[in-house]
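Weekly sync notes, structure subgroup
Attendees: PM, AL, DS (notes)

Item 1: joint prediction request from the bench team. They want all two components modeled as one assembly rather than separately. Inputs as received:
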Amino acid sequence: KNEVEQSPQNLTAQEGEFITINCSYSVGISALHWLQQHPGGGIVSLFMLSSGKKKHGRLIATINIQEKHSSLHITASHPRDSAVYICAVRYIGRTGNQFYFGTGTSLTVIP
Amino acid sequence: EPEVTQTPSHQVTQMGQEVILRCVPISNHLYFYWYRQILGQKVEFLVSFYNNEISEKSEIFDDQFSVERPDGSNFTLKIRSTKLEDSAMYFCASIVTRVGGYTFGSGTRLTVV
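Output from the run, pasted for the record:
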C-alpha cells in the first residue's frame, strides 16, 4: 500500500482554470515537499512545508497536519504548467531523513 | 541559483557492465541522496550519504550498488553489474541541513540492454 496518496492521478484543464491537486499521508510527518517533474524527467522543488501555507507566484501549497492532508493549487493555469506534480513526505520517527514519494498527478493544461 | 549537476544525462549500457553515475552537489550542502524512478513508477529512495559515509540505505541498494565522494565535490553511484531492471532515471539530491528541502539534479536516464 502506497503510504502517500495523491489525487487525481490525471487531470486535464482548460487554460485559466483553477487547479487543485491533493496529497494525503498515513502517519505524522516532519515535512512535505511538492515537486514538479517535467516531460523530460527533471524534478524541480516547488515548496517544502511543515505547517500552514506557502505561495509562490500562481502556486499555493497548504497543509493540514491534523487531517494529514496537503493541497497544491494553481491559479490561472497555463499550458506551461503541464507536468507531473509529486508530493513527498518525511516521516517523524523513522530512521533516516529521506522522503517518501507519491505516484504523482499528471496535469495537462489545454490552450 | 546553485544547481545540482548530473552526468551523463543518458547512458546506455550492456547488461553485466559496470556504470558510474556522477553528481556534483551544491558546494555548501552536507547531505546527499540517490533516488531512482523506474519508468511509470514513483520515485524511490536508494541511499543517503553524510560525513563521507552512508547514513541510510533502502532494500533496493544491495551489494551491486556503491556510493562515494572521492574528491570532496563529486558524488558517485556505481552499479557493478547492471541488470535489465536497473533501467531507470537516477536522481541525485542534496540539502544543507538534515531537515532542509531538496535540490534535485536533472537526472541520468540509464538504459540497460
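Discussion: The first strand of chain B starts at residue 5 and ends at 7.
Action: AL to compare against the crosslinking data before next sync.
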